[in-house]
Design a protein that fits this description.
3 copies of one chain form a homotrimer. In chain A, about 30% of the residues lie in helices and about 30% in strands. Chain A has a 5-stranded mixed beta sheet with strand order 1-2-7-5-6, covered by helices on one side. In chain A, strands 3-4 form a two-stranded parallel ribbon. Chain A is an alpha/beta fold and about 150 residues long.
């Protein structure tokens, strides 16, 4: 059984540095066995934001790349701020995709985030999920995801 | 005191089969005493989605019908995947309505879901709620709702 | 150390009466040590809603005023319905801003709510946060925020 850290290396992924909040709040807050992660946007390892609306300027594939970037930022918080060894599982993911009003393939966009969590974390990466298309996201990011995690007892 | 199953029959309602996720995720995840249900969309018992934007093509009444359909899918998960006898209460509902930018009667739409939970479950069906109008939902569904439930200890 | 009530007075703030839900739901629901607060909109002490879309009719400053109003309503529930002395901390805030499709300074809007929580509650007011721009909110409110709180054991 590989650890998530080993899996990240095997997959050839590079995590961005643990993202700093874009406002007056914490990257994550622990309450009992739950951890609430702040919304993570589609920002790459160099700090560049994948901007734009999916279905109006951005293709489905670009939206999927944005979902993967947002997930990598969430993984960075898990690794650098919490520690994978303390995490029992991902409980819930809420995915917000900045879309054109007539773009509805939101699940296909967010599957790239869900897939990545499953690849890196295995069964504990499986989660409940809600998926929504919104008119605007912070800094014109294409995707924002937030997570609820469960810690090991 | 009727059980929720008996109440569903008395109300003449038919639950759709427990919905399959539209992506790579679980219908619900249990963490401690809480259950996080994935977003449920306005899909009828035959699998047909009530599509469109409320206030632009769909009327308020059609939006309310969509909210009821989404609630019936959530009830199906409660019955078929969790079991009503294990559920202490609905804690929180988040309702997303696919709206025209100038349609703001979102609470009136979602009341039909809240009403249905109260009718079927009684007092344990009462919940905290947030209501939002969004530009796009998965598969062009008119309504999506997600729930947090509490299990009996 | 001032209590939140004393701090509210020191800051010259007036809390609106504990808001009544705009639909068939509860202002907040307790589950274990967590409290889920229903979405609070930008309504002032006289009951008047700060309406409109930020970036299309409303300025950034007006959006920030709306965020502060929504936060004051949440503080009113904490004071009048729960009691500050029972609250350990704010765990999570989700902020929905009714925006024009090209307005992306959503964190700057919501910082005014986060700031107010920190001013009134101190360290326990710090929280995880997600920020989203949506096409429509109930009653045409400019801002809606929801909170998850942790109670003292």
């Amino acid at each position: 059984m590989m650890t998530p850290e080993e899996k990240i290396i095997q997959l050839g992924l590079s995590l961005p540095p643990a993202p700093k909040p874009a406002g007056l709040y914490q990257p994550c807050v622990v309450s009992g066995n739950l951890v609430f992660l702040s919304g993570q946007i589609s920002r790459d390892i160099a700090g560049k934001i994948l901007e734009g609306k999916v279905g109006d300027g951005l293709s489905l594939a670009q939206g999927q790349e944005a979902a993967k970037l947002a997930a990598l930022n969430a993984l960075s918080i898990m690794k650098n701020t919490i520690g994978f060894s303390k995490i029992a599982r991902i409980v819930k993911m809420t995915g917000f995709v900045q879309t054109a009003p007539d773009f509805h393939e939101i699940p296909a966009v967010l599957n790239k985030a869900s897939e990545l969590f499953a690849e890196v974390m295995g069964e504990p990466g499986a989660h409940a999920r809600s998926a929504v298309g919104v008119t605007s996201l912070p800094l014109n990011a294409a995707v924002e995801i937030e997570l609820v995690l469960e810690l090991k007892s």
